[in-house]
Amino acid sequence: MNSKFKQAIDTTQRAQRNYDLSKDIPQEDLETLIYAAVNSPSKQSETHYSLYVYTDQSIIRQIYNTTQRFTLGINEAIESHDGEEWLYKNRSVKNSQILSNALFVYVEDEGPARGATHLAAQNNMSDEQVQELVEQKNYSIGISTGELLLSAALLGYKTGLCSAFPKDKVGKIIGSKYDPKLLVGIGYENAGTDRRLHSETLNSDIPKTRRTGELDEHWKFPTFKKYTKVTINGINT
């Protein structure tokens, strides 16, 4: 069992950049994934988010089309051009990790407060209390996302996360009065295809200095490695 969990964790650590959209996620699996997402712990079981789930590819693509914010050269934008607007138009690609078989959209929400601080925050009594409630919402979404990703990996799916998108545009697409906070793509990998290859963007669409292969080949996302310090009983490991 330990090895299965480690394998699932290794799977979720790396974003799937392309999916096999010819397949459908079974309803039983989808219900299990939703169960994992909505039943994760939150402070005193307060409601901190709503969940919008899509398997309709027309809606998923509408959301995907707003995500041209994976930047290819932030320094070029700062040094030579007019900031973010130029960067997103000329040196960015869409986040194909959410062009998936199922898309989960986490939206900030509020239910009844179950503590004095959160009640005060909902009534805007102090900036500090409002900030604490915002933090709790972010914790809850993060915890839920972790349980969702792990559940998806244990069921054999690949995943990807995206937070770089225009909140107002996605909010209009899904019909929410609250701000969307996070997009989670879940689906089937393309067997025999490098997970890092963009679903649609070719190297011919990319500035010459950023290409990763032949012009008619799909552009490949970079990969990164993180380093986390762990201390056990005061001893660094």
Strand residue content: 15-25%
Class from secondary-structure proportions: alpha+beta
Strand elements, count: 10
Oligomer: single chain
Shape: globular
Give the helix proportion (percent range): 25-40%
User: How big is the Rg?
Assistant: 20 Å
Major sheet description: 4 strands, antiparallel
- CATH domain topology: NADH Oxidase
At CATH level 2, the architecture is: 3-Layer(aba) Sandwich
Number of domains: 1
Report how far the terminal alpha carbons are from each other. Answer: 24 Å
Put the structure in a nutshell:
With 237 residues, the chain is an alpha+beta fold. The protein has helices spanning 2-13, 27-38, 57-64, 74-80, 83-90, 116-122, 127-154, 167-174; strands at residues 49-54, 68-71, 92-94, 102-108, 158-162, 180-187, 197-202, 218-220, 231-232, 235-236.
